[in-house]
Please model this.
Amino acid sequence: MQETVKKVLTGDFNRKKALLFLLTALVTVIVWNLPIDSFGIDGLTVVQQRIIAIFVMAVMLWLTEAIPAWATSVVIIFVLLFFASDSAFKIMQGSEAEMGQLLDYQGVMACFADPTIILFLGGFVLAIAATKSGLDAKMAKVLIAPFGKRSEHVLLGFMLITGIFSMFISNTATAAMMLTFLTPVFKALPPGGKGRVALTMAIPIGANLGGMGTPIGTPPNAFAYKVLNDPQGLNMGIGFGDWMMIMAPMVILMLIVAWFILLKMFPFSQKTIEIKIESHAKSNWRTAVVAATFILTIILWVFGKQLGVNANTVAMLPIAVFAFTGVINANDLKDIDWAVIWMVAGGFALGLAMNGTGLAEVAVKSIPFGEFNPLVIMVISGLVCFALSNFISNTATAALLIPILSVVCAGMGDKLAEIGGTSTILIGVAVAASCAMSLPISTPPNAIAYSTGLIQQTDMVKAGATIGVISILIGYSVLVFFCRMGIL
Model:
């Protein structure tokens, strides 16, 4: 007790975050208890007002980072269960006529085991197995070899390989792995040359852009993918392969454009580079099992729709195979990024709360979304997402924006057809979130690259902002074109 008091008195206790948390709590309580008529929404119920208050709480906690982002998701689910579900305190329930539609508590809890969560777990398990077996290093060595020794080709190779890995493996893990492969490359470059900056920046840029290529590449993709395919919502039936068919080539195009920009900003002074990627893991039966499972999983993800099996179900394949064969053990499960899983679950719970209580429907009817200009909605949503994601977690940004935009899109109806429909807006937010890479704090790959000390923040801002904005323009152009054709 004395040590705790001492920490508070000496300033070890973070007063700023404590004040931000108290401010969030105060604002949430005020919104929770406002007269229901003050919201200006016809037919608003008590439970729906609580959801608005919980949403305000989530926005403030994620923006201020008063508590860790994953902890905010835990708090969201806790408050929904105890104060807005049919398993809440009796004093919080009342009759439906009096309080409005309560959430099904089982549905809220099911957010932890949503099929999209299993999809993410499958991706995490694949990444852990690839690293443990040394397959990741072997794949990198084989894939980088065709790019030769010319400096600019080596740069392109690292960007493309990082981007491809990030489609199936956590972009944070990919960035960390690829940066270790650069260590021997740097020995062959002049200490003060700009080529080192180009190569270092290539890793986070490749990782951030590459994640767009598949539904499991980044959490924002998962939010968009879930909403678009929700059987009780849009139910568009977009398969893993459908997503990849459009998004993977788009990512390759973005990476090539980014390569040109990096070469112009940070030109190499040395024409050739010797590449040596070493793997310390020995090949054995586990490597073969991981390789075979990796290939089979990707094939089933891409062609599963034609075979009658969805991507979420396929994600159980690597989990089951690696558990059964002993490639992954109980200790390895600690390496799963559970913070991301919790964050995604919290975002899903927010979306469920808006739809399950009827708040989304009431909002659609009370606000004249149909009068909005589709192009303005697309541009504003993209810019807001890009701006926020540069300063807070892109997962948190997507968790906040996608439920709101789902309501907006529902209210606009057929007017969205001219820009490709709801898909353009929701997938566009995921694209904008991944393009936000201007600062060391913008994404974990950026932070990892900056921690090497090889790049300055000004270099990251210059390259990240330029490539990010151009990538957004490419992304939305591609989405409008293909979504209008009905492919996505």
About this structure: The chain has a mean pLDDT of 87.
